[in-house]
Design a protein that fits this description.
Elements (H helix, E strand, L loop, with lengths): L1 E6 L7 H12 L5 E5 L10 H11 L4 E5 L7 H12 L6 E4 L13 H7 L23 H12 L4 H4 L4 H7 L14 H15 L1
Parallel strand pairs: 1-2, 1-3, 3-4
Helix pairs in contact: 5-7
Length: 199
């Protein structure tokens, strides 16, 4: 099975391993993933034209369409995505974190420390409880601060710490995202994936 992730953000490559793990919960098929790099899709006059170009460039069996809710009701984002998908014939799943995708990387302290290059560090990372992740107004900033603190670098060297690269390394140290089932948006994603695969 080949899937494509369509997102407006360049940092959303962090979703690819989460989606692959989620698919493996519900299917034994081999999984091939693709991230539709927005920089490789020419500008289009409307979202429908853009979607058609994406599907030509990244043909797939299942399309994931990502939009962070970012303070809007998730139902509004779901409605937007559904309207867009009515223009094409493809199995698709909306991916709508309550705030930002980065909240889904804040649940594993050990993975954050390893991604920061200091797996044995003991600094307090100030991570919120998992049941509070969807309440964070700016999960990206919290994650960047946690990674920077976890690095153990002094104030002078923190200025050169490649925090954006380290965000993408967190998934290298995660092999189970089931703890995220405590979050409503993650549960909705799992249910939507199951329904799409059963369709």
């Amino acid at each position: 099975m080949r899937y494509t992730l369509l997102s407006d953000g360049t940092s959303d490559k962090v979703l690819v391993p989460i989606l692959k793990w989620s698919l493996r919960r519900f299917t034994d098929e081999a999984i091939e993933d693709q991230w539709a790099d927005p920089s490789r899709i020419p500008r289009q006059p409307d979202p429908t034209s853009r979607l058609r170009l994406v599907l030509e460039a990244y043909p797939c069996d299942l399309l994931f369409v990502h939009r962070d809710a970012e303070g809007h009701p998730p139902e509004d984002r779901r409605t937007e995505i559904a309207a867009l998908l009515r223009t094409v014939q493809i199995r698709a799943v909306p991916v709508i974190p309550i705030r930002m995708t980065e909240a889904w990387l804040l649940f594993d302290e050990s993975a954050i420390r390893s991604a920061a290059g200091n797996p044995n560090g003991t600094q307090d990372l100030g991570l919120p409880r998992i049941d509070r992740l969807e309440d964070l107004p700016d999960p990206k900033t919290v994650l960047h601060q946690a990674l920077t603190t976890a690095s153990g670098l002094n104030a002078r060297r923190r200025g050169t710490f490649p925090v954006h690269q380290r965000v993408h390394r967190i998934a290298d140290y995660l092999d189970d995202y089931s703890r995220l089932d405590a979050l409503s948006a993650f549960r909705s994603l799992q249910e939507a994936i199951r329904a799409a695969l059963d369709a």
